[in-house]
Amino acid sequence: MARVDPKAVLEGRIPGRPPVALIAGMTVSGVCAAIALGVTALYGGPGFWVGALLAIVPIPVLIALALALDRLEPEPPRALAFSFMWGAGVAVLGALVLNTAGLLYVTVPIFGESEGHFVSATFGAPVIEETLKGAALFVMLWVRRNEIDGFADGIVYAAMVGLGFAMMENITYYMRAFEEGGTEQLGAVFILRGLIMPLSHPLFTSMTGLGVAYAATHRRGQVAAPLAGLLGAMILHGLWNGAASQGLGGLAVVYVLDFCILVALVVIVFVERRGTVRRIETYLPAYAETGLVTPQDIRMLGSLHARRAARRWARVVGGPAAGRAMADYQLAATELALLHKRADRGVADPRWFVARRDALLGLMALARQAFLRTQAHPRRTRPSGPPWAAGQGGSGFLPPSPPGPYGR
Description:
Blueprint: H1 6-11, H2 20-44, H3 46-56, H4 59-68, H5 77-111, H6 113-143, H7 151-196, H8 200-217, H9 224-244, H10 248-283, H11 295-301, H12 304-344, H13 350-374
Helix pairs in contact: 2-3, 2-5, 2-7, 3-7, 4-7, 5-6, 5-7, 6-7, 6-8, 6-9, 7-8, 7-10, 8-9, 9-10, 10-12, 12-13
Region (Disordered): 374-408
GO molecular function: peptidase activity
Organism: Actinomadura hallensis
């Protein structure tokens, strides 16, 4: 039997080498990021290295916070990496070129030096930057729309794009603060941009992410929803830039606005997560006759706490291999429920639905077999049953009973 790649099945792709389009996109984004860094370093002097260090330090924590929103059905690492690199590369370099050209040839000649910078920051930059950031989400909607299963996915991908963009942009802000006001001004800017509200760009682009996610999971609004999301991102960005130029009062207003948007996005994610749990409880009982799920297993799959406990139990009784098998089983079951969600909304091609369903069921079967094989070691002490199963026969993860001295 050919070896099955669980990650390829979960991500809905052909196993093997990364797609050429992904390699090309990462390469182009990396080159653009290198050029943008080179230009910034050329004009930055010693302040560039200070700015780069301060911009990079919070990124791992911010990425972890963004990914925490998507624990029930984590997105493919390669897609997340592409989104981050697009924001840090293509979007940043494109914004650098277009914003500079707009200042030099449009806003400053028309409105003058002071007003030209205000018009550019409030109206020009939001349109340019949000369009460039949103382009990554539009690309995913075009080529990988089946990977976007709901609003949480759109928010996470948008957050990755925004974090990449913000990291590169913050280098410039920190560099200028260090060169103009020394460590005192640098500290103030870092507190405002890096600690109090480091998620402004991810929040702006999340509006585009919501629109793209709606288009990916509904039959209507294929054009209107992404464009409405992009418009929302531009408006929020413009409000931020315009209010920030009004001093501390303006900053206080936009910080409160951003906080309210952040709370709203978290609420959306949690409401959607509860909906996914309900779909697990609705759709998976139909597969009980396959022997791959039992009512107790479905109860485990419907709780993040129970899923974590199941993975811990699997690692205890079967080691790392059993833990990986349990994780693959849980993710495949979740993807199966989300597949039915797409079918109910009429956005799943029937032939693709059948092929995807069979692949996920096959992965669930292989994952369970891999787990049970870890229990067949003759020297292993027979473990207690799954913590979520009540009594014998309560779970497909119960190892078979060993034969007695006179056979079974």
